[in-house]
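Whiteboard transcription, Tuesday session. T.W. wrote the structure tokens on the left side:
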């Protein structure tokens, strides 16, 4: 089992978390959250990877003669991409509305949002 994809996923996630923690702009924060989300794509694809794996279509090969790739992991990755794009679009729409109402996208200047 290769450890490199897991290290890449951890690095991408930590880079996104660092950007999220140090962000002084809501649009930048949404972008960093999308980077954190992309680490899950790498992780899911690393879990589902098999050396010399083929598609799980058994019309041309005998079952059990080759390793096949699990299609559930690929479907989960596609679902994760769709959910990530939807969440990013929603957060950007909220950021646009905050910018219209308050005139800024700096989280420190949004005093009305504090409890």
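and on the right, the sequence the group agreed on:
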């Amino acid at each position: 089992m290769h450890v490199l994809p897991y290290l890449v996923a951890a690095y991408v996630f930590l880079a996104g978390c660092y950007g999220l923690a140090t962000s002084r702009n809501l649009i930048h924060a949404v972008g960093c959250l999308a980077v954190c989300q992309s680490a899950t794509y790498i992780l899911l694809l690393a879990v589902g990877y098999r050396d010399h794996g083929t598609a799980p279509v058994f019309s041309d090969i005998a079952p059990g003669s080759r390793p096949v790739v699990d299609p559930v992991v690929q479907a989960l990755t596609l679902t994760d991409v769709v959910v990530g794009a939807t969440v990013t679009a929603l957060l950007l729409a909220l950021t646009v509305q905050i910018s219209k109402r308050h005139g800024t996208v700096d989280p420190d200047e949004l005093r009305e949002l504090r409890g």
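Someone added at the bottom: The two ends are 48 Å apart (CA to CA).
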